[in-house]
Structure formats: C-alpha cells, structure tokens
Amino acid sequence: MKSYRKELWFNVSARRAFINITPQVEDCLRQSGIKEGLALVNAMHITASVFINDDEPGLHQDYDVWLEKLAPHDPVSQYRHNVGEDNADAHMKRQLMGREVVVAVTGGRLDFGTWEQIFYGEFDGGRRKRGLVKIIGE
Amino acid sequence: MKSYRKELWFNVSARRAFINITPQVEDCLRQSGIKEGLALVNAMHITASVFINDDEPGLHQDYDVWLEKLAPHDPVSQYRHNVGEDNADAHMKRQLMGREVVVAVTGGRLDFGTWEQIFYGEFDGGRRKRGLVKIIGE
Amino acid sequence: MKSYRKELWFNVSARRAFINITPQVEDCLRQSGIKEGLALVNAMHITASVFINDDEPGLHQDYDVWLEKLAPHDPVSQYRHNVGEDNADAHMKRQLMGREVVVAVTGGRLDFGTWEQIFYGEFDGGRRKRGLVKIIGE
Q: For C62, which of A3, A5, A79 is closest by C-beta distance?
C-alpha cells in the first residue's frame, strides 16, 4: 500500500469564500503515483469546509446567502462562543457544508461525475489556513 | 490491496425520493471478495445525496418536509443559480444530507449498527443519474 | 494492509450531549500499530453523530441551541416518525452534524490541525449506544 500526504495553504482576505481546489488535488494524485484507492481531502481548521459541488458563481452566492440565513454571523452576541471571538457562526456553517470529502481513485484519476468539483469553503478568513490531502492505495 | 468499483444507476420520476440501496452495496461487497477494508458510496451528481439513516417511511416524509423548510424549492427566482435551471434548492438539500458515506468492511460484511441503512437521496429527479461504490481492502 | 476495529460504548443520561472521544481514538490507533492510512470513526446509531470541531463548552451550548432551532424536538406531534417514538428531531440533528469522520493517519498519529477534536454527538440519550473505529493502513 502506498500513501501520500500534502498540505494545501490558503489565505483568503474576505471572511467567506469558496475556492476550487480540484486542480491541486489532481496534482497531488499525479505526484502520489496511486492508481486505485481513496483520496481524503479535509479542512484542518474547524471554521472551514471541504465539499464537492458545482463550480457556478451564482450557486456560490446562493450558498453564501443560505448559510447566513441558517447560521447568521450577526448579532455576534447571540453565541456564547463569541467571548473575544466573533466566529461562532463559522463553526456552524462548516458543519452544514462538511469537514471533508472522500473520493474514489480509479485508473489514476479522481473518479468523478460530470460536474463534481472540490471546494475549500472559508467561513472565517483573514489569515493563513490549511487543508490536507491524504491518498492511500496502489 | 484489492479494489472494486461499480456504478449504480437511478431514474427517479419524481423530483425527490429516498431509495434504500443497501442490498446493491452488499452485492458489490460480495462481488469484491474484500473482507477487511473501507467502502465508499457517493452520489456522482451534485443534486443528490448518499446517506445512512432509518428505513422508515414516516421519517422520510419528515425529512422531505424539513428539507423543504430549510432549503425551499419555491420561489425558484430567489436563487441566482436558477437561470435556465430550477434546481438550486437541490444543491442545498444535498449539502444538508451529504454526498457520501464511508462504511467499515469487517469479516466480509458492512459493519453496521442495527438500524443503519444506506439511501440514495434524489432532490432533482426526472432523469438518469449515478452513484458510485468503491471498496478497498483485502 | 493491516486493519483494526473497535466499538466505543456510550451511555448518556441526558437527551443530548457532546463527548470528546479523541483520546479513545488515539488509543485505538496506538493499539492498531498502523502508521500510514485512514481512520473511520462513525456512530452506529442513526440518532447520533461523530464530528470534528472545537472542544469549547460555549460552542457546544451554541450548537445545542442552533440544532434545536433548525430541527426542534417539540412539538413531537409535528413529525410522522413520532408514532410511539419522540426522536424524529434526533434523526435530523444527526444529519446536520454528520454520521462519521475520516481522519488521515500519518507517522502513527491522527493527522490533525491545531484545534481538531473528535466528538460523539448524542441526540437521543438515555440508553447504551455505540460508535465504531475502523483503521486501515500499514
């Protein structure tokens, strides 16, 4: 069994953003030389997500509005976590969008449907943060 | 390490439905000959889910009502994604229910608690769509 | 390829609670002897979650309030699942928080960011329930 590990670094200046990281994950897979196995991609921070959906800007705006409705940032005082912090909502948005994805690796490729793309979802930006790619297989 | 791959196809005529795919995944596991490992089951479409919960029709109706409350289909004009489309809500419902499950394989069986069953959740039906089963192990 | 399996048992007297199970999962990893691979940790019940977030009591109270807002327990009669049961809301809260996590194993350690901790989330306590740890690798 082979294994491969790489950290991906992000520095989003806005509080929230969605970044397509499919090309970076494909690079990792090529570097790994793994042809059959599983690829895990996860946020290493608890106010960020890795998820799979569509690379469509309108949808990303819809997600942003929708997440703000289900887990509003303001008023920050509504959350007990926000003592010297203002990111409690980011911990909730991350649960809605998920921490990680696991992707099948088949024939040396990410085994994806037509529209599947991997995103890093930032909900508390303004600093350097990390994601992890771990691939195992043969 | 062995690996196994199979696509599962669905054609749901309704917009939304939940389909118990546990028997199909168990068939895949038998065909794979894998005794110890991990099974990934994921939707290959971004308006559908694979999730694990109870095979209870009342609960499925509750899920449908609840998802419609958290991510309503109408009015379709509320979503920027809905330009020539009407499925933005399906992209949200899929995030709530999740893209994939990873299941332990032990002694050649899906290593499940008493009530765990795997479902394909369709949120934008009316056409042929796919799920993926990938199993790795020995 | 090595594989390791262990059940973790819980008995939460309250209806809802979050329990940090990171030390138990680390024990499992040590016992497994696996240095490189993937660790799956999942609830074996469909009214409970395993998720990764912050071990901060204020945040856990925020999660409890927030989950109750998005998937309220009362009135129990609002859910069709609640015929001789009162836990439909727990099936929804579990979908919001997720069934499972998959964690990279690197150098014999859980490959975590600074604040990542694994929690068992109970949404329908008052009885003995199980989680599963399955680790594969070398």
A: A79
